[in-house]
Amino acid sequence: MAFWWPLLVLGVAFVVCRFLLMLIPPSVPSIEVDASDVLEDGSQTKENSYIYIPRKGRVPQTDKVQCYEPATMKYLGFTQASTPDEVKEHVAQAREAQKIWASSSFRQRREFLRILLKYIIDHQELICEVSSRDTGKTMVDASLGEIMTTCEKITWLLAEGERWLKPEYRSSGYSMLHKRAKVEFYPLGVIGAIVSWNYPFHNVFNPMLAAVFSGNAAVIKVSEHASWSGFFYFRIIQAALAAVGAPDNLVHIITGFTETGQALVSSVDKIIFVGSPGVGKMIMQKASETLIPVTLVLGGKDAFIVCEDIDLPTVVQVAMRGALQSSGQNCAGAERFYVHERIYPDFVDQIVTLVKSVSVGPPLSGRYDMGAICVQEHSEKLQDLVNDALEKGAEIVGRGNFGHLGEDAVDQFFPPTVIVNVDHTMKLMQVETFGPIIPIMKFSSDEEVIKLANDSNYGLGCAVFSGNQKRAIAIASQLHCGVAAINDFASTYMCQSLPFGGVKHSGFGRFAGVEGLRACCLVKSVVEDRWWPYIKTVIPKPIQYPVAENAFEFQESLVEALYGLNVWDRLRALTSVVKIISEKNTKPINAKKRL
Q: Where does the Aldehyde dehydrogenase domain lie (predicted)?
């Protein structure tokens, strides 16, 4: 007792001190970011507001990217589309800055993250409002998908980022016991990213944070559908980098069309692409010219599986969030709903009741549950999918309600829609919807639903609900996808220690987590002497040039001594190895010929 008592006191004192240190607020510098041109000041009226009317069909690629609010069609201005030569200049500037940043300390990189985190927490409303204006999503959806995910990533990098970028020691094996084996992680150089419009804040910060924290520079092409917000968010990054003394031009934001993206792929040291499978194939083809690594996070058609033994009201609420968040602007969105036949009628009834209570409208002009469709003419594509399903026997059983919308606003909005009697012959169950449609299909057994869920070209994520967690895990383990949530939806992405990505037409490679962070690095295998300079590598005499007559006998014995399955055989072989090495005047294999 006398021995353990001091250790117990020291342990308690350590815990108390750690707790008291947590109560001391950290000293994190504040940054100022000009937001005067991105917020409504109340001075605009119907008379002086400029309503933008985009062209129908394929938009011609010009030197300007026109920006407008999808929910109101109010004109926001334009951003300059970068030419291929300008893209190369951006990358060249980033490359020079990266040479300096590569030697930065993890302490400096963590300070950069803390400054960003402080600004994000203090300016949540501003960030969400800018995202809402540019994409049409509600403030709540922006908070869930933009703020929380980004804060979670920053917090994880602060806690664990340095640990996963330090050299990692590995076992050296039997033949290299005198060596030390390790993996080292070095910056690749300039990380390029081409990101989608659905989360304009997080999609910029996600690749930027991983790239900068691992010692790289970043050049990010934002979507032409969300360029206005992207350039404002860039100001936040610039201010935080300047506050820690980072070199100028370490991070760049660009926008444009096809030629801009192609030029970026041709110039950087790695490309991360978030978008459609069709464009992903073009990215791969272009990247093959310079043989740079590629991470593709593409479309999804995630299965939402509901077994009969669940708490129905809770799961229905989760299903609504999975299907309708940001008018379908959610990563790994639930797009195929499979419900056990025993609870199918009740599930449909409760979903329909909730959907009919959902109000759709301009998210910043009232209290609406769902905002606008971001991309021009996408609502027409959604209706085409619905029509195809109806023609093949499906039935609409519930739709949401529009708010106070003018006749000219119908194209930007699509009501949440519940469809039953669906099957896999319908396009709605096969192609990525990216919209607020809930197709519900019944199943009778676990084996059946596993087969249905795997019947897709996509393989991004899934969600499985059951009152028996082992059952849910067993189902999810047989689904061919990259992420799985058990009795929840999209929770995997909130665990930023986990990698994110899919298989099949959902892409390959991972961002987020340890794998995503290390994917921004040159991974180098290193072997060094464990007891240098006392034990060094010496080529055994029998296999020194010119090799001895018994060289192969020596190798045979050495292999069995190291890897033999029987301990007695290994000892016998080891004796043979020692004997051969001890022999004097070992003749070279070609000694007679030389004589």
A: 62-526
